Amino acid sequence: MMQRSLLIWSTSxxxxxxxxxxxxxxxxxxxxxxxxxxSQISSxxxxxYPEIVLGRxxxxxxxxxxxxxxxxxxxxxxxxxxxxxxxxxxxxDFDRPRDRIILRIGPVLVVAFAITLIFLYxxxxxxxxxxxxxxxxxxxxxxxxxxxxxxxxxxxxxxxxTMQILLFLCFIQTKKFGVRILQGxxxxxxxxxxxxVLSLPQILLVSFLLWVYGMRSWKYYLVLLVLPVIIGMIYYxxxxxxxxxxxxxxxxxxRANISRDRFYVAILFILLLAFYGVQERLKLRQILDSAILxxxxxLGIFLGAVAGACAILGAFIIKAGPVMQFxxxxxxxxxxxxxxxxxxxxxxxxxIRAFKMQGLKFVMIIMIAGMTIPRAIKVVGEFLNQYPxxxx
Length: 392
Fold this sequence. Notes:
With 392 residues, the protein is mainly α. It has helices at 2-29, 34-45, 49-53, 65-76, 83-87, 97-125, 128-139, 142-147, 154-173, 178-193, 200-212, 218-238, 250-257, 260-281, 296-319, 336-354, 358-386, and strands at residues 244-246, 326-328. It is globular, with a radius of gyration of 22 Å.
């Protein structure tokens, strides 16, 4: 047991170092663009810490956590934006790797940490095979590759969502350290409410699922649910209410963050779960065992998160004005990225474990590989074609 634990932690540490190098390489080679530079100048450098906390950020999202961390990092590195940016004479930067590294080191760090946490969770509670499959899913996710190294709140949102889901699954999976896990989950949900107002549906979802799974102590919900919702609503009230409008279909917004192949794996799990129910009810020959039921918490997260994204889209539709000033883009639903990675890894692992016959296990492995590998090759290939200098 000690040897396995040492192997898991040493592998995870090595993975984190590799991911940091990858992220910094991407950060140094991708040109900074308009939104990153605008956030740095208007929401970080021109505002004091109290002004950021008081929601004076002039962007659509006034929650302060990302801007506070960016300001602290810039002061740590004694960094100030180029004069050309502030004058507006050189608003697009293609020349200075140092700007790219310093402004993006925070997002690179938290995403590398999140991917490592996912790997560590699956190595610890499932298997090394599941851990490496989760890594494969993460590094072949288009939205993660696109926003891993970007000086905007999206990387922080993905990372906190990762911690939120993993803490929830740990609480359901093991009764050890239950109070500590709930304390950690409460902290993460408060941080989420300070990162982006659109995180409120996922905070409600996890709190509801905790209730479903028997966590009925109301005092925990004061910090798990009530406090984050109050914080989120305060910053929603402080945020500028710009007129937004949808530019894609609801399906396109969802599939940009959870690709079609991952939905296929989820559907396969649901079908096998239904088959298991029929098998047990009719006392048929046991093809699947009860291991399939271990995917139910992840299914709750998966379906609830998709429903939450649809609810957000519905709110955007209801509030849409007659004239579109800002488009609703796919990144507003980037919390679905870790949902897809973690849930699909759980589904895959429990499907393979649940089959009694080795031949059927092998068939499932081939089937799921056939669903996920072609898409992964396409995504990674397109990313490298777009930024060929990253690994040159």
